[in-house]
Amino acid sequence: MTDGRMLAEAIDMLGAGTAGHDLDGFRARYPGARVRLVAQREEYDGSLHHALLIKERDGATISLSWCPDRALPWPLRGVHRAGEHLLLRVNGVETPVARAIACLDFIWDESRLADRLVTDSLVREVLEEEPEPLTDAELQGAMDAFRRARGLLTGGAVRAWMDRNHISHHELEELVVLEASVARLRSRVAADRVDDWFAAHGHEFDVARVARVEFTEGPRVPAADGFLDAAERAFADGMARPGEVFATLRRGELSPETAGRVFGAAPGTVTGPFATEHGHLLIKVLAVEPAVLDGTVRDLVERRIFAEWIERRRSTAKIEWFWGTADRTAASGSSGVANSTGTAGRAGT
Question: What is the pLDDT of residue 105?
Answer without folding.
Answer: 57
